[in-house]
Automatic annotation (TrEMBL):
Keyword presence, Transcription: yes
Coiled coil: none
Keyword DNA-binding attached: yes
InterPro entries: GntR_C, TF_FadR/GntR_C, Tscrpt_reg_HTH_GntR, WH-like_DNA-bd_sf, WH_DNA-bd_sf
Alphabetical keyword list: DNA-binding, Transcription, Transcription regulation
UniProt-recorded name of the protein: DNA-binding FadR family transcriptional regulator
Domain HTH gntR-type, chain residue ranges per copy: 4-72
């Protein structure tokens, strides 16, 4: 237990050092030996703390090069990298969370849209057609959240999508990509016209369709005679 508290305290000390020195993603941290000397701990303890921080992308360990500030250092909302939402109930809950959150995000995007956000969102609609076999990774939905101008909402959605992608890594879900693309375009059209009610409605309908497709595939996986 003492070791666990030490690693936790050390992790916070390392993060405090990053923020106090104004380090940004990609900048190098002092070597592990120097950090150990600074905090009065052993090098293995520092390395264990760094490994834990790496799990949430707060730092990046580059073999033979050192430790660097990770891309998530300024994020307020992070997903749990050790959680595996592989069962049907977990997948349903993730979709229900998205259905509760994303339509409001779309409505906000329609209210505060700007040209740059609309251009990124328009490019994001093509993502559904880019890959033939991979599950969509939510690029369009991330751009929709960014278009809302609310960083906290964007981070929350990215965390949900990270869990969502892991849940489907071993799934046999295959979406209708043409329909997916068409629904994305309808959402973009509502956002571009500045119609928050339509943007909200179309986003909710789109997510319900995705949920039905995903849970339908899960049900068939559980029932080998479903197509018999």
């Amino acid at each position: 237990m003492k070791t666990e508290r030490l690693i936790e305290t050390l992790s916070h000390e390392i993060l405090s050092t990053i923020r106090t020195n104004g380090l940004v993603p990609g900048q190098a941290l002092p070597p592990a030996r120097e950090l150990a000397s600074r905090f009065g701990v052993t090098v293995p303890s520092v390395r264990e703390a760094l490994r834990r921080l790496e799990a949430t992308d707060l730092v990046e360990l580059r073999h033979g090069s050192g430790t660097y500030v990770g891309a998530s250092i300024h994020r307020r909302i992070l997903d749990n990298p050790y959680y595996d939402p592989a069962d049907r109930d977990s997948i349903a809950e993730l979709f229900d969370a998205r259905i509760a959150i994303e339509p409001g995000i779309a409505a906000l995007a329609a209210q505060v849209r700007d040209d740059d956000a609309l251009n990124r969102l328009t490019r994001g609609t093509d993502h559904a057609l880019e890959h033939e076999t991979e599950v969509p990774v939510g690029h369009f939905h991330v751009e929709l959240a960014r278009a809302s101008g609310n960083r906290a909402l964007c981070e929350l959605l990215e965390a949900l999508l990270s869990l969502y992608r892991r849940a489907h890594q071993t799934s046999r879900v295959r979406y209708d990509r043409v329909q997916d693309h068409r629904e994305h375009c309808e959402i973009v059209d509502a956002v571009r016209r500045g119609d928050p009610f339509e943007a909200e409605h179309r986003t909710k309908r789109h997510l319900i369709n995705l949920k039905n497709a995903a849970l339908g595939a899960e049900e068939n996986d559980d029932n080998p005679h479903a197509d018999a």
